[in-house]
Amino acid sequence: xxxxxxxxxxxxxLALTQCTDDSGIQTMKAELxxxxxxxxxxxxxxxxxxxxxxxxxxxxxxxxSSAELITATGWxxxxxxxxxxxxxxxxxxxxxxxxTNTDQPPAKRQRLDVSPLELLAxxxxxxxxxxxxxxxVEDEVQRYLSQPNIPLQHCPLAWWxxxxxxxxxxxxxxxxxxxxxxxxxxxxxxxxxxxxxxxDQRTQLAPERAEMLLFVRENFxxxx
Length: 224
Fold this sequence. Notes:
Blueprint: H1 5-18, H2 26-39, H3 47-54, H4 66-81, H5 90-100, H6 116-131, H7 137-145, H8 156-163, H9 168-177, H10 185-197, H11 207-219
């Protein structure tokens, strides 16, 4: 998922920097850090990765510099302005359904899966969202970003399910960027191809040369 690209890049760099038990691998660690800095230097400048990180309640804006955050927040506000928020109104739906079925006996009332207090809290939250609809997108985005990050053990999707009404516009953006990818077959096939290139007879193969070989292998079928 795009939401883990920036966090994983920061995490790997942090782990390599703080690693002290590196006797005999100082050169390898330095080369790996240099390669990460080179390949992912502009990852926060990519809208898809920046947006996915911002709407991820585990990280939000904590992985951006001041300049990067200004740009990424602008992208988030622009996306939030373009979404259509239609608050649900269960009472209206029930009333209209009853009006259209006046000739039929009333349906059997379903058992509530939530307690009365939870039902009341949900209704109050919906009323608050309707009353607060005049607030600006900037206010909503800033309120969301000011919230504390959730722990690593908590599920981000569960957090959004609980706070979707409170941050309705940002929640719509999160649905777009935190959705599961359709398949990982292509990436798994690419990893397998890289494993075929790095064999026991090619242990000294330079990363740049391996990348070129992998590119030629995957694109040779398009050459006439």
